[in-house]
Amino acid sequence: MQGAHVTTFRKHGETPLTFMSQCSRFTSGQPIRGGIPVIFPWFGMREGLGNHGFARFKDWELKEFAPAPDGSVSVRFRLPDCPEASAFPPFTADYVITVSDALMLQLIVSNQSPDEPFTFENCFHTYFEVSDITAISVVGLKGVSYLDKVANFAQKTETNDAIRISSEVDRIFLNTAGPIEIHDPRLGRKILIEKQGSNSTIVWNPWVSRSQQMQDFGNDEYLRMICVECGNVSSNEITLQPGRTSTLTTRLSCLPLS
Ligand code: TA6
């Protein structure tokens, strides 16, 4: 229930799609280091309020459990009222997770205020498992502008067909709605990340020194993970008019790498 957190997703007999740190604390009120943290209602630091919103460590309510005839199963969670939410106009946030041979995630936010707009950021901060960070590539972001967090948020444009990682990477790609792939030749697979209702993609690997600074992350674990995150952040934040609803959807699957 904590954060309505998907801690792992794995197809029978295969390497998990998602990565979970051996050092994650699973402590009440603390974020979980791995799997799929739900980032809402803000992304990044907010003065006096901490990183990445409160949805990721609140206890969500389980509202529905629905097996379907095709063998898939859906669960629906709702973010309960909490003191942190009172700083925003009244809203509801539902999270629907559908498990089949793929994983589908939907974050559905409604502005319940009669007269006030609701502005927020959202993101599925997914940690993916990889064989070796130096051997993989991230495909689908060529030509997209990004804010480079490791260069003080300098605005840059991605020039590579395939992004290779050989140092700390923390990039907020903006105005990009397309799918992304993680190619992993050593595992012989590509992870496909499809999305709807998302204009931002974030790519993060902490590399050596940032890994050492995180108490809930192993010093060498950066070698086996990459975050590729779908959402709406920074200038892509969402403003919902009274009574309106927005849905962030992502579908995660994997295929053999041909
Ligand atoms: O999405 C990338 C990022 O914002 C990085 O800057 C990095 O610090 C990371 O998220 C993890 O944040 P956390 O609050 O979970 O330590």
Q: What's the β-strand tally?
A: 21
Question: What series of H and E elements makes up the topology?
Answer: EEEEEEEEEEEEEEEEEEHEEE
Strand order of the largest sheet: 4-5-6-7-21-17-16-11-14
Largest sheet: 9 strands, antiparallel
Question: How does this structure look, described?
Answer:
The radius of gyration is 18 Å and the shape is globular. It is mainly β. Strand 2 and strand 3 (50-51) form a beta hairpin. It has one helix and 21 strands. It binds 6-O-phosphono-beta-D-tagatofuranose. 6-O-phosphono-beta-D-tagatofuranose (TA6) is lined by residues 31, 44, 51-52, 125, 149, 170, 202, 204, 227, 229.
What would the keywords be for this entry?
eight-stranded antiparallel sheet, nine-stranded antiparallel sheet, mainly beta, binds 6-O-phosphono-beta-D-tagatofuranose, globular, 258 residues
Which SSEs are present, and which pair or pack?
Elements: E1 38-39, E2 45-46, E3 50-51, E4 61-67, E5 73-78, E6 91-99, E7 103-111, E8 118-120, E9 122-124, E10 127-129, E11 137-139, E12 145-148, E13 154-157, E14 162-163, E15 169-173, E16 180-184, E17 189-196, E18 200-205, H1 207-213, E19 225-232, E20 238-240, E21 245-256
Antiparallel strand pairs: 1-9, 2-3, 4-5, 5-6, 6-7, 7-21, 8-20, 9-19, 10-19, 11-14, 11-16, 12-13, 12-15, 15-18, 16-17, 17-21, 18-19
The structure holds 6-O-phosphono-beta-D-tagatofuranose (TA6).
Residues 31, 44, 51-52, 125, 149, 170, 202, 204, 227, 229 line the site of 6-O-phosphono-beta-D-tagatofuranose (TA6).
